[in-house]
């Protein structure tokens, strides 16, 4: 551990200070070998330990490794010394989206582009069991190509954080963007709370100012609780309707992400991407398949040591909250090529009458063609390369009925994949008589969920004549 600081200096050339907070500073840096620009977040370990936030730092690392998406800031690696923790992250040259919108409202097409990317990334987080809980323009960065990237998962929660009532109970977020049910302290659905915050962000992008604002914090909370806001005259009718459904104070009737994506205002300007195509029928024509072989293999993400450790069974917290028979995910390893695994999965999906969507980064999505007990069943299958010709595959239910998912998994996927499986994660022995793999499963000590207390200044009343935004942070004692 002691030499990690010197290793960091050997790999990266540190540059200017990009920003700083109570516990960390963020620097621009350059990888000496590849010349790639990165951002390095340097966390003061002593300060974090003093306020008891080390578990939160660990959770942030786990979450950022879990949510790999084009519109989420990528965490490349983590290093630590006796006094510092270093996050080496994707560098977003465009800075915070806040800086753009603080100058005034955005053009509708520009706002829609950012909103589409935000919803896509948030939807992906939720499919991985992650709730951000602090979505705001200050935490949305822009890369060189002006693409949005969600950052700062310090307040995020995992699905395992839910209590027995199925709700989250840690009150956190930013006052101007927080959902009314979070303020009420009676438990809340992380999905619905994030949707509310996305609605506030959309309003800010189109208006240039906040929908709920008052110099008196308690008065602002009252407005949030009753959803008292007024859209300016330049908002198109479709955007007004969408906002009224997103900023519904009743979380049970608030619009879902699927319906947001299906709304007319959201869909305007979307073109069919060659990177996301729906496969209705699995082709067995080798000639047509060869053209995409190299691209398909190139998309498979490679796991480093940190990823492998975080995916080990003993780091899976779901077993503490679910009965074994109701697990919503499964993992298996295979010594077959990625293309063979994908082909096998597609053939099984066809036989089970599941629709298959191909996505980037080795991710396949299976969807049922009929409504189940809890909506349409949706299953994510993600393929990772551990070493050459050895892959880890994660199968996870993202929506629908868990019992229906278990039936598909146990009666369809498991038997159908039998001939390419090395071992399932929950099996004791490999299913094939090949060379044994050494398995070491580290102990995992589970700590209770904690929240981050940030500093905040009360928002000031803003004039629509000269729309201005202020950065907003929160302290626990500022919530009622």
UniProtKB/TrEMBL annotation:
EC number, as in UniProt: 2.7.11.1
PROSITE patterns linked: NAF, PROTEIN_KINASE_ATP, PROTEIN_KINASE_DOM, PROTEIN_KINASE_ST
Record field: catalytic activity: L-seryl-[protein] + ATP = O-phospho-L-seryl-[protein] + ADP + H(+); L-threonyl-[protein] + ATP = O-phospho-L-threonyl-[protein] + ADP + H(+)
Matches recorded under InterPro entries: Kinase-like_dom_sf, NAF/FISL_domain, NAF_dom, Prot_kinase_dom, Protein_kinase_ATP_BS, Ser/Thr_kinase_AS
Pfam family, one: Pkinase
Keywords per UniProt: ATP-binding, Kinase, Nucleotide-binding, Serine/threonine-protein kinase, Transferase
SUPFAM superfamilies in alphabetical order: Protein kinase-like (PK-like)
Binding site for ATP: 41
Domain NAF residue range list: 298-322
Cofactor(s), by name: Mn(2+)
Transmembrane residue ranges: none
Domain (Protein kinase): residue spans on this chain: 12-266
Annotated stretches, region: Disordered: 427-480
PANTHER family on file: CALCIUM/CALMODULIN-DEPENDENT PROTEIN KINASE KINASE-RELATED, CBL-INTERACTING SERINE_THREONINE-PROTEIN KINASE 10
Annotated family: Belongs to the protein kinase superfamily. CAMK Ser/Thr protein kinase family. SNF1 subfamily.
The name this protein goes by in its record: non-specific serine/threonine protein kinase
